[in-house]
Write a structure and sequence with these properties.
The protein folds into 3 domains: 103 residues, no CATH class; 128 residues, no CATH class; 74 residues, Orthogonal Bundle (Arc Repressor Mutant, subunit A). The protein contains 13 helices and 11 strands. Helix 10 packs across helix 12. It starts with a strand and ends in a 5-residue tail after the last helix.
C-alpha cells in the first residue's frame, strides 16, 4: 500500500489533470500489450495496435526496445514518464532528453536489480541515444495512441466533471473520497492499493500538493513515482465498465426491466459522466440511437446534459443517482 500524507496546504494544491499524460499512456499501453487483464475493455485498440506496429515496421522496436524498458512489474524508470508531460508530448520528450545522465544510470540500475534491464539500457545516459529513443517513442505514439486521443480526452473530461461534483459537495476532501475502489481517503491520508510485490511506503507531500492524472490505458492499481523527491503525481485508472449482458440475471436486471437494456447502460455510463459517443459504444448502438436514449433520460429527469465545446457530457441528476443506487447491490 502507498500512503500519501496531506497537510492543509497540500489539499489546497491538489488538482486533477485536464488532459492525458501521453508518455504515461505510452507506458500503460505497453502493459496492455503484455497482459490479458482487462483485454475486453481494449479489444478494438489491441487489434489496431497490433496492425499499426506491423504495418509501420515497429514490431522489432516494440519487442527489443520498449517492452524490456516498460515491464509490467513493480518498477520501470521514472525518467520515462516525466511530470511535465501531462497534455504535451513534446514537453515530455524534451524532459527525457534533459534527464541528467546520472539519473538515467541510477534508474536503469534499479530496473536491473528489480526485474533485469536490457544490456544496452545504460547507453540511454548518452544524449544521442536518448534522441533516437525519443524518435521511437514519437513514432509509436503517433501510430498506436494518437487514434484514441479524442476518446481518452472525452473520458478525462467526464472524470473531471464527476470529481467536480465531489468538490462542490465536500471540497477537495469530498473529491478525494470519490476516486474509486483502489483509493481510500482516511483524513489526512490517501491510501492507495499497490501491487502485492511492492513494499508498503509513505509519501509526504510537504506542501507540494498532488497532481491526479486519470489514465485511459492504466488498468488496475494506481501508480506514483518511485522517487519521493520527484513532483507528487498519481496516475489512476479510468474504470472501463462492461455493459450488462443480455438476458442475464443479476443486480442490473431490475434497471434493465424498467428502462430497457440500452437506456440502463446509458444511465450507468452517465454515473461517471459520458459523451453521446461513449454511450453509443457502451450500449452497442448507433450515435443517433444513443442521442435519443439520452434525450428520454434527460426528459425523465434522470440525467442532465452540459455542452463542453464541440462535445456534450451527460451526468446523473440526484433522481438518476438515487435510482441507480436503489438497484445496485450494497457493499
Amino acid at each position: 500500500m502507498l500512503r500519501i500524507h496531506f497537510s492543509d496546504a497540500d489539499l489546497a494544491r491538489t488538482r486533477i489533470a485536464a488532459a492525458p499524460d501521453p508518455l504515461w499512456e505510452v507506458a500503460s499501453s505497453m502493459h496492455r500489450l503484455q497482459s490479458r487483464r482487462g483485454r475486453w475493455a481494449y479489444a478494438g485498440w489491441y487489434r489496431m495496435a497490433r496492425q499499426q506496429t506491423r504495418e509501420r515496421g515497429l514490431g522489432r522496436v516494440l519487442r527489443s526496445v520498449f517492452l524490456p524498458l516498460y515491464p509490467r512489474a513493480a518498477y520501470f524508470p521514472d525518467f520515462l514518464t516525466p511530470a511535465d508531460a501531462v497534455g504535451d508530448l513534446n514537453a515530455g520528450l524534451e524532459s527525457i532528453l534533459a534527464t541528467p545522465p546520472r539519473q538515467v544510470l541510477k534508474e536503469v540500475a534499479i530496473l536491473d536489480r528489480t526485474v533485469g534491464a536490457p544490456s544496452w539500457a545504460r547507453q540511454l545516459a548518452q544524449l544521442d541515444t536518448r534522441k533516437e529513443f525519443a524518435g521511437m517513442l514519437r513514432a509509436y505514439h503517433d501510430a498506436v495512441l494518437a487514434p484514441y486521443e479524442d476518446q481518452a480526452q472525452a473520458r478525462i473530461e467526464a472524470e473531471r466533471a464527476a470529481r467536480a461534483r465531489g468538490v462542490l459537495d465536500g471540497g477537495v476532501e469530498g473529491m478525494l473520497s470519490g476516486l474509486g475502489p483502489m483509493l481510500c481517503w482516511r483524513p489526512p491520508v490517501l491510501e492507495v492499493v499497490y501491487p502485492k510485490q511492492v513494499e508498503d511506503r509513505d509519501l509526504y507531500l510537504n506542501g507540494r500538493g498532488l497532481t491526479l492524472v486519470p489514465s485511459y490505458f492504466n488498468w488496475g492499481e494506481p501508480v506514483a513515482f518511485a522517487d519521493p523527491e520527484m513532483p507528487p503525481v498519481l496516475w489512476y485508472s479510468l474504470l472501463h465498465e462492461p455493459s450488462p449482458p443480455r438476458g442475464v440475471d443479476g443486480p442490473g436486471k431490475p434497471l434493465i426491466t424498467l428502462l430497457g437494456r440500452a437506456r440502463a447502460v446509458a444511465l450507468r455510463a452517465a454515473s461517471t459522466g459520458a459523451t453521446t459517443g461513449e454511450i453509443a459504444r457502451a450500449a452497442g448502438v448507433s450515435a443517433s440511437s444513443a442521442s435519443r436514449h439520452a434525450t428520454v433520460l434527460r426528459d425523465s429527469g434522470l440525467i442532465t446534459t452540459i455542452r463542453n465545446g464541440p462535445t456534450v457530457l451527460h451526468t446523473l441528476t440526484p433522481a438518476g443517482a438515487s435510482l441507480l443506487r436503489s438497484v445496485s447491490p450494497t457493499e
